[in-house]
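Structure record:
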Amino acid sequence: MTPKSADVIICGAGICGISAAYHLAVKQGVEQVILVDERDPMSFTSDKSTECYRNWWPGPGDTMVRLMNRSIDLLEELALESNNYFSLNRRGYAFVTADPAKVTQYERIAREIGKLGAGPLRIHRGSPTDPVYIPSPSEGFQDLPTGADLLLNKKLIKQTFPFISDDIAAILHVRRCGWLSAQQLGVYLLQQGRANGVELVKGRLEEVSLDDGSVRSVFIRTGQGRLELQTDKFVIAAGPFQKQVAALIGVDLPVYNELHPKVAFRDNMHVIPPDAPLMIWDDPLHLYWNDHELEELAAYEDTSSLLEKFPAGVHFRPEGSGEGSYLLGLWTYDIKEQEPVPDPVFDQEYPEIILRGLVRMVPGLKTYLNKMSKPSIDGGYYCKTRENRPLICPLPVKGTYLFGAISGFGIMAAMAGGELLAKHVTGDELPDYADAFLLSRYEDPEYQELLKDWESTSGQL
């Protein structure tokens, strides 16, 4: 039977809420933790990602690299204790360019991020004195390089990535990166949490009751009616709806949402090796069209946008093997702020645009033009701050906390973020990067100066 009170109530059973519950119950020993969500766990945004992770983050400062390194440490600990229940790998991210001018840029960026804590840079020019390049295995994550490998040797590039275009100038293979099964990670954390007293209540949060500026109870609409749960600790981990939930306690969060779709289609012809890393085309490009298609598109004004140059960043990763081989593709070429809705609608042209963009990097994908197996489109919201850094902190109302603004990096940040959130709630000693994720950072004049030149896409693929 659902208790009428709890030590901590968490609104949201996505990966952030589940991780917070896990850390509170399993690691901090909090006895009564209740997760509240009107949907099934992990079913709104957390299961719509590419499920990837990386410690490759730009500045200012090293806080994002440190947060992600801690999160990856915790993921690896979980993988070892669970016999890799959620299939963690470390295949890396491969940034690909055909522009020779980017070679010095790649080297500069890699050295800068390496100094922030991501690891050393190894350059492979084809010289006998080059360091040994270690390709990523398809499975596993132990005893592998960190940092990055900058591949400039054409022979090595073609040997390692035989499916990519012949005119590649460089590949920056970032190493402490890969992916996992987000759904299985959520299942494992929830199993461990439930074994330590975590309870899941399916219902819609309707009201948060305050008394003298402190949280006292929450009201949930369930299938059996309206339920009151008393608590003096309330955590908002509501993903795209965190702004609306925070409004219930009179707090206006500086966050907004973008909708980011993802496409999956079968790789029936096995164009991409199933052990490839995440591949990112890092140059602006025009979509691939044959001569006849170009003539047709030029004749209609409403298709002119398809002939324009698209931004860099189209990327994919393989999923499965054999007859179950898929490619997951994404491209952030059309970003706009929007309000979240329960059933978002996606552009039906997106799969073809993704495919025609990927052809620039992988010419063999032309085989699927006009005969692609029926693709699936889904996606989720990136709930972001203007500088694309999270909020993991107490809120102004006593007893309330936020694990939010996790943008497109919820899976990779969930473990360290959940740990940090739990430490805030229990009063445990905080890591020294904790201040970087406080809401109060916006009151700092020096931080306000940084924001003037800070891109909202910082660290975003």
